[in-house]
## 1
Amino acid sequence: MPLTPHGRTDSNGRSDSNGRSGAVGLRVVGTDEEPDKGNAGTSSAEAGADAATETETETEAESGTGADADAGGGTGPGDPPADAGELERVLAELLAFLRRRITGDYTVDEHGFDVDLTEHVVAPLLRPIYRSYFRVETRGLENIPDRGGALVVSNHSGTLPLDALMTALAVLDHHPAHRHLRMLAADLVFAVPFLAPLARKTGNTLACHADAERLLGAGHLVGVWPEGFKGIGKPFSERYKLQRFGRGGFVSAALRAGAPIIPCTVVGAEEIYPMVGNARTLARVLGLPYVPITPTFPWLGLFGLLPLPSKWIIEFGEPVDTSQYTAAAAEDPMLVFELNDRIRETIQHTLYGLLMQRRSVFF
């Protein structure tokens, strides 16, 4: 969720993006006093032993293996629990969560968003994938405001929408305000029996003007992926080439709410399921936008559903300020088109830049 610098974690296991290592180094302080003349005859063997002890202590301090270093050293968010005390804390939080579910001591908003379930069940399940499997490196979180409505607009890829989940977790864990990204999802998400209620509970809502404007107006951080299925279901040969952003509906919503638009660029998701073919006939029968054929699926059965462990980078760009416009500007098609195209070009150029910086697909 590694190359991403990890800081300290709070009681919910979320990372402080400005965290510093808590390791305490040891320093052996010598004395300026003259040696006692009565002990001037100390054997050279004893002196050598003292010198060896000092050297050993200094070595432990520098390497962080000394007892004091272990006691003061903090663990990063991707590290396993350091001791039994940490394990007890995790178990206590789990028991507290179960107690709240049994007693009904939790809240759900008008869109069905369950913060308690998201923070204590879904996010912990995704963190090992984020930190250790995709080794996500997050940049530009300072461009996301600590409060107030804002719209995050991102590229979409990877056959399955794992990029949306990783982006939401990056904001929750590493942004100083630990904000929840309220994702605008396609109609299909809410048509799947098991997926629909889970999507609602984790903060997703229907990708429509009404819901987007309501969330932005209420001061939420909203995420949208304008490429839709055209982006996430494109063939591997078209990787990192942005598809059409539609008619700019997300721009209109941001203009009406006066919310800044934050371009977000994800590199790494294109390679998790390299789509080399599309079983269109089967897709039509099942009512799906596509049925992907990858180097591993369907040939390896369920094992083919495992994503490849590519190296990810998520970068949040500088926000586009919309406060200079009135709500009536949302009805200006030329302005909407211009802002829509500007956001798309910003993400595309950032994609090219990040690809140049990446050493390889997997490192």
Note: The longest helix spans residues 333-357.
## 2
Amino acid sequence: MRDRSRSPIRIKRESPESRGSHRRESYGREHLVRVKKELGARPIRIDSRGRPYKDEDRPRSKKSGSAIVIGNDVSSGSHSIEPEKENFEPSGLLATETNTRNGVVMKYTPPPESRMSPVSWRLYVFKPDPEDPKNTQVLKTIMLDKHEYYLIGCDQRVADIQLFHPTISKQHAVIQHRLQDNKRVRPYMIDLESTNGSFINGERIEKSRYYELK
């Protein structure tokens, strides 16, 4: 026998449109709550031992120690972080880097009047006859028209004109094309403070001084 004292339970069928709208509304509220929580997040504060502060034991006074702040809040802490000041003093590293060749620091730096020669100069390498010093033989002809200067030495990494002799230094001397006051480009020779020195027509030249080649 059916008990009529209880109220009948009625099940209402829900339409697909209403189910979709309900889901959208619930998703919207959850999304808003999550965004609100993310926007209301506080920066993490860490004590001197690297442990994060809790809300109840976080120091309230500005004088009670310093705190490292991770985030945008940099006002806390007794020690202020000073930004590194800009230093415009020359360090010399750029000059050293630009004055190198194949990893070797060059002893010579070309002057401002260094130019390419419009005239083709030649350097002849002679070999004297041991029996007759006046009789010489041309071993090699070097053209001096491809560069502004030519480094003479025994270091194969940097020398443009390589001479292998016990009296030749690694960076011995330089033949430099220079622009003169009369707008002419002439070759000069300079000794790079070599051990045994450089000679022009049998006479030893001074170190670190230009001598015109005629």
Note: The first strand starts at residue 44 and ends at 46.
## 3
Amino acid sequence: MCKIYILCSAQVWQCERRPAQQKKTSREDGGSKMTNPIGTMPIDPQTSGSAAAVTYYRRLLDLLDSNASLSSFEQLTTDARDVAWSEQLADTIGDAIAITMRLRDNFELKRKREIELSALYETARDLSALRDTDQILQAIVQRARQLVGSDIAYLSAADEEHGDFFVRTTEGVISQDFARIRVPRNIGVCGSVARTRRPFYSSNYPADHKFDHDAGIDRAIHGEGIVSILGIPLELEAYVMGVLFVGDRYVRSYTPQEMAVLSSLGTFAALAIENARLLEEAQRALLLAREANAALRTKADDIEQAAVAHEQLTELIARGGSLDDLVNRVSNLLKGQAGVVDESRHLISGAFPDHLTDEALAKAVRESDRVGRSVSLPSTDGGVTVVTAVMGGSARLGALIFSRSRALSAPETRTLERSAIVTGIVLLSLDRISQIAHRNVADTVSALLRGTTDPFSPEGARRLSPGISLSWPVTVMLVELVTITSAQASSALRSILAGRDTIFAEFNGDLAIVTNAPEPDALANRISEKLEEAFGHRSSIVISDPIATLDKVPSEYEGLRRCFGLMRGLKQQGRVVFEKTLSVYALLFHSKGENAVDLFMRASIGALVEHDEKRKSQLAATLLAYLDTGRSAQKAAELLGIHVNTMRQRLDAISLINPDWADPSRTLEVHIALRLHILGQAT
């Protein structure tokens, strides 16, 4: 009996291949002709393997197309147990299920992000439509609870008269005592959020000692059954006007994505509350003094313009606008030039003034992050450059830079700062998409170097982004990462390796690059120069010959790996070399035969090595130092830390053991053999 293992969503399903006669067909059971839709089409155990596979694939695609639940895929796998698969078909179908489940997971991630962005957009519209403060606050807590899926949500507002916070609005709260909580500014999660102006959460509130507890507050929390809690500051102009909380009655953590989304909601809420407060003040002022009517109308117009601008930006990202679309919209709204830089201050969209130095930009970004506002930098031409840190929760994602010939008004400044918030949402979305794409590329590179899957087949190519186009033959490069991480190297090289004909990922501690570049050596030299510019030193890079078929990739990869060891032994780190050219240093490595290496070593320095092994001496190292220093006994002695007379005595001993080492026709062979000997000791 042949057993077939089919992978399905982290579970291994074992199917037993049964003889066909043990199962009756539907016709033998008196059933009518099959009329089921594809998603429920049964797999006839009597059908040939290929036909059953076609039916299985059709059902699999139908489930994926209809966004079926995980149980439907599991039922499909259960149905497959009764089919007499061949071993090859079983493996193929197992791979198909694994790929399908990864696609399903990717769809779920994208759907969740879409729901979050849609919820933020709906929240912004709700908040801009509401004018009553109590309605605004109720809308805030309802949306917060919905976004995170928590048991409760509530908002604590600042009380300037008493210098503390009080619970203003709740959602999902059972205990009446909970609504009467008042929290001093230095106590509890509320105090931590108000003090740091950053999100703060506790997965186990009763046992958490990272903040000061209050007995009365703890009783109220216990009475509500809250275990986990997250607080988000409602901040405007570096002032925390309240804290938005979500809580759960079980131990849980809150992801950076959830914090980022709630932070955006909290900022929207703070702005909406402030707008409502300003409008209420304007209405009171209109009743008290007619002479202030013109000024109040101007203020209201400014606020309305800012709200319209914010709604336009929110609508832009809600319908999937790109970062470039957002930058262009900001430039048009504020009549200037906008640009976005990443966390390393590299420009990723738009533009910024040439006179803005990296040092000045870095200082402005840090200051903006510290104060929570934009920072203005006057320019020599009379214009102004405004820098606003782009945050995602508590993480700094980059900065939004805006410049024009005249200063920004207060409403325009608020619009720019709101634009930075929206920019953070876009960058978080791009980061999530980039992570998914990076995982797919890493899997592709790994499968290629292991020789398990052809990534350029129609099936494999679907895992790569539409912007990638690779085909056989390919060139493989390995970049040795010694003092830097793969993430650092990838970040530095992203602009160089962003073409359609190249993919790259970390593999076994090295950076592996697969490319169709017509001049791989030129590409490798640019990589080496970029790494030296970024980190102060060059990395060893080995380039393969063009590889025509999948089965040759693993052996070529192993050859590239061995080259790093040879380069270290020959002290040639930091060079860019083709793998085939290393045979110049030792013909032994042209065919990669271990026996040939041993014969070469014995013929050149065998007697010297045997003497060192028997006497525990260091004559081989002494001769290598002597040859490395250009036959200078004085320099070699200094290198080894011995007296020059001792050096000469060792050279005399070497001449007795290996008399032909000084023969000019043999010196190169001896020198290379000594380096290979050191390489063998290192490995």
Note: The mean pLDDT is 81.
## 4
Amino acid sequence: MAVYYYAKKIRQSSISGNVIIPPVSSSSAPSKTNSTPSALSAVPSVIAKSLPQTPKSPGSMGIEGSTSSSSSETVDDSGSEPDNSLVFQDNNLVSGPLDALLQHLVPTAEYYPDRTYIFAFLLSSRLYIKPHALLAQVVRLCMLQQNLADQKLTKDKLGRFCPHMVQLLSEWMETFPYDFRDERVMQHVRQLTQRCVALDPSLRRDVSQMLHNLLHRLTALEKYEEFLEKINTEASAALIDTVNVCDVTEVCSSPLILSQQLTHIELERLSFIGPEEFVQAFAKENPNVETSFKDMKKTRNLESYIQWFNRLSYFVATQVCSNVKKKQRVKVIEYWIEVARECFNIGNFNSLMAIIAGLNMSPVSRLKKTWHKVQSAKFSILEHQMDPSSNFSSYRSTLKAAMWRSAGAKDERQRIVVPFFSLLVKDLYFLNEGCANRLPNGHINFEKFWQLAKQVTEFMTWKQVTCPFEKHPKVIHYLQTGTILSENGIALSSFDCEPPENSHEKERFKALKLAAIHA
């Protein structure tokens, strides 16, 4: 079991420092609320309001900030030429070489990097250096600057360095826990924490709690991935070409309750997507990214979430086309329109868009006689809200309103924002392109790092919301594993509902029947 694997690895990190890791509970993984990173509770609001900014490290403290928006200054953190220095504008970090940016991350006795900088750098630096190599560089710099290898070194000589170093590791684990599935990363954690605890025994409890929290997060992740594998296996077995479908209204007659159960699914799946997955997904597809990502964590949670959207769309189309009687098809379409409307009211835009996509699939949209009987005014309003024209301008305005409502809400129901995920991924993809491209002088464009961090932080705020609605496990299980027809199966069922009307449809129907015979 993964629980014992991670427990063993994390316990190894504490052997020399006599750090005690509390035993892992045999019960299910901690809830999303209980495991919410403390650092994240501060990062979203800070980043959203004050990006970009970061304090200058000790090497830059003697330089005065400029007041002109067009002026800039270079800060040499490494003692090398200006081209190897950090560049600030209006006291905001805008660019620098990787080595100088990495140096800016490393704490000292007097200096600790701003949380917004830590998040932005750890998020996007993986486009240039893998997490295990980054932590190795941090360890190397700490050893050199603080002379940690000196056996005569004392706590008094180091000042606040050890608490600062443990704090940096803690924030890294809280915001990017999946990085620590890599044994190479854990080797560096072991090296640093054991040395810090040996020098400052008062840190033993903090290190124990830090590793305990990490163990719970990695255990929860492993359990979730096992759950996904099981669900996906059941869902694959339920993919068929012939009609044998249970009507969703028999499982859940209330559109409101169904929309709430969809929101449960959305928020659970969102909660397990690591912020770094957006960067890794981009890196795998971009040939210009400098590092190889073959050994990085597969972005299965992000990909599974996108697959969930597709499944829901096919589920909706299946529910409509599996009813031979027109009256029942009309009822099912109107049911899903009501579900979509309730999703809109909740702020669940991903399920809303998936339902709209399902009702707009060709096998469903071609059922003209059916749609003629549907009270479709509500559907037209929803389609307008999610209209893709002008880069989804209507949806983006609605999303801003939902974010404003969420920011000031005390009721958990008002805090829910589930974005249209495919569009979010597209937006982040373009921001990643900016992060991956160096400036003409070879510097990394940290302004792009800030932009990506701000948008990803909004996502992190959304995914931390706990779904307040009553849970109906049978409905949730049905939505995730219930029978769906294949693409050809939906098309054939559509023609069974309403015969082909033109030569193109007749040819399509003929080809589908032929394919079904030879299947």
Note: The domain at 248-417+465-518 is CATH 1.10.840.10 (Son of Sevenless (SoS) protein; Chain S, domain 2).
